[in-house]
Write a structure and sequence with these properties.
- This protein has 199 residues and is an all-alpha fold.
- 80% of the residues lie in helices and 0% in strands.
- It has helices spanning 2-18, 22-58, 62-67, 69-92, 108-116, 119-131, 139-169, 175-191, 194-198.
- The relative contact order is 0.24.
Amino acid sequence: MMNDSVFPLALFALTSTITPGGATTLATTSGVQFGFRRSIPLMAGISAGLAALASVAGAGLSGLLLAAPGLQLAMKIIGTAYLLWLAWKIGRSGPPHRDIHMAIPLGFVGGAGLLWVNPKAWAMASGAAASFAALSVHPVQQAVLLGATFGLAAAVSLSIWCVAGLAFARLLRTKRHWHAANAILGGLLAASVIPMWLA
């Protein structure tokens, strides 16, 4: 009987993780700048962060966040500041350098941390926990199910966006192209904070 309801959850998780936003923009940018292999720690961090967040929501702890408006506001401010700082760094960068001074991609911890200060991710995980609460009567089982589903969906979605970044990078031939592309990606990342404040 549980299998009948897992498909809608999987569809919800895949749809909500593949839509453009801060995480997908970072995966695309990392693919452009560093390639797929060097972007794996970032994508793994984001996926693990979302899995952990969905697990917490599934266990019922997201109610604390919903009951504390001050905590929600602090998360919005921190999340916005972090994303805008990343957008500024991306927007100002040029072509990737292949020497010893090459910038390093955002790693596992940075990717995982990004999700914990992202109100959109909390809303998505809390919404899933509320919508699919009937899948399990036990909070631990619900936490594992939501965590695994969202973690896997994020890994698939981010990989698709990273590969799109690789394809995009092949079109960039000159420094001017790289500066323009990075300015666009930085602008998209900065714009991704707007829905956070409209929710």
